[in-house]
Amino acid sequence: MPEPLSPKPPRLSEVHTTELVLPNDTNPLGNMLGGRVLYLIDIAGSMAAIRHAERVCVTASIERVDFLRPVRVGQALILHARPTWAGRTSVAVDVDVFSEDLATGSRSHTCSASLTFVALGPDGRPAPVPPVVPETDDERRRYEAAERRAQERRAAKGEA
């Protein structure tokens, strides 16, 4: 029987990344395309999941995305992704997105998303991941929310 994987706190797997919003990323109004934001969320989220699982992870679901404010061409898009909960083979990740006016340093929270990734072994089948161990009140709140979403998904699939 394989040894249990050691629990890991979210801080060990966090991802912080920044992108400059260019004209090719925007609609005719100069606002960043939602699909481009989703792409970057998926990339940042997958990096956090891979860091946590220490193996390849694939996107299983995007449970929630809230677009709060538009992001304008010329602004920086800052993504902060971190694991919030882990099941046997899945890792829940929250991604918060901020826009920054590079000239003034002014930042706005522009988007939040919750995703689930599944870890894969060398054979391409789901593989075990370490548990997430929350350390702060915010991490505990995110852990409980992600655990509820996982239970709701299982109930909807008849696996509860």
From TrEMBL:
InterPro entries: Cytosol_ACT, HOTDOG_ACOT, HotDog_dom_sf, Thioestr_dom. It comes from Caldinitratiruptor microaerophilus. It comes from the Bacteria. Residues 11-123 form the HotDog ACOT-type domain. Residues 122-160 are annotated as: Disordered. One of its GO terms (molecular function) is long-chain fatty acyl-CoA hydrolase activity. SUPFAM superfamilies: Thioesterase/thiol ester dehydrase-isomerase. GO terms for cellular component: cytosol. PROSITE patterns: HOTDOG_ACOT (PS51770). This is HotDog ACOT-type domain-containing protein. One of its GO terms (biological process) is acyl-CoA metabolic process. Residues 138-160 have a biased composition (Basic and acidic residues). Keywords: Hydrolase. CDD domains: BFIT_BACH. Belongs to the acyl coenzyme A hydrolase family. It holds the Pfam family 4HBT.
